[in-house]
Design brief:
It is a single chain. By secondary structure, the chain is mainly beta. About 0% of the residues lie in helices and about 55% in strands. The protein has no helices and 19 strands. The chain has strands at about 5-10, 10-15, 25-30, 35-40, 45, 55, 65-70, 75-80, 85-90, 95-100, 110-115, 120-125, 130-135, 140-145, 150-155, 160-170, 170-175, 180-185, 195-200. Strands 4-5-6-7 form a 4-stranded antiparallel sheet, with no helix packed on it. The protein has a 4-stranded antiparallel sheet with strand order 8-9-10-11, with no helix packed on it. Strands 12-13-14-15 form a 4-stranded antiparallel sheet, with no helix packed on it. A hairpin with a 6-residue loop joins strand 2 and strand 3. It is globular.
């Protein structure tokens, strides 16, 4: 589809890239500042800081509408599994929250993962794998073959202050406040290989 979403403060804009200059075709303004978003099954999941998780129906791009809200005070990042049934929330603390969003009108907390002294600040889903940036405790890898019950596969301890993640195929880039950009090869999820780092990368 030619559509994409952009956030500006509390406002969500839906753009149609098939129109000149990517014209805005739909807008929704809600209470909190949008810090992160993920998409699955015709819905956007918005992390809005102190105002929690907001689930938005974008199946009709010209008329985005709020389906539900889940109260949280630290909704910093959100990642959703590919079926759109489970959302994983991080907020800069040692806690990873797991929400059942199979019924998007009634999100429910179904689990919590806690790791002492970690600072979970980012997460992303790749197939049946969940990656979580944990600050000084490194990069956590979970199997989400059972989406509501993530099971830790391994932890990459090379990092000293990893806070952001990106992935392409099985190559993960982790931004670390001290090491810069660290590249990790995940050809095997349970046997990651640190390829090197770019210390001058913006972190």
């Amino acid at each position: 589809p030619p559509y994409r979403a952009l956030a500006s403060g509390p406002s969500l804009h839906i753009l149609n890239d098939s129109l000149p200059a990517g014209s805005v075709v739909g807008t929704l303004t809600q209470a909190g500042t949008i810090l992160d978003m993920d998409y699955a099954q015709g819905r956007l999941y918005l992390a809005t800081g102190k105002t929690g998780l907001v689930i938005v129906d974008v199946s009709v791009p010209t008329s985005p509408s709020v389906l539900s809200r889940f109260p949280m005070t630290d909704a910093l990042r959100v990642a959703v599994n590919e079926s759109g049934e489970v959302a994983y929330m991080t907020g800069g603390t040692s806690v990873l929250r797991i929400l059942n969003v199979a019924d998007p009108s009634r999100p429910k907390l179904v689990g919590v993962k806690d790791f002492t002294n970690a600072a979970f600040t980012d997460s992303l889903v790749s197939g049946n794998t969940l990656l979580v940036a944990g600050g000084a405790k490194g990069l956590f890898v979970y199997s989400i073959a059972e989406p509501k019950n993530p099971k830790r596969v391994t932890r990459v301890k090379h990092f000293t202050a990893v806070h952001s993640l990106a992935i392409r195929d099985r190559l993960v880039a982790g931004l670390d406040s001290e090491l810069g950009m660290v590249l990790v090869d995940f050809s095997a999820w349970n046997a990651p290989k640190v390829l090197g780092s770019l210390p001058d990368a913006v972190a």
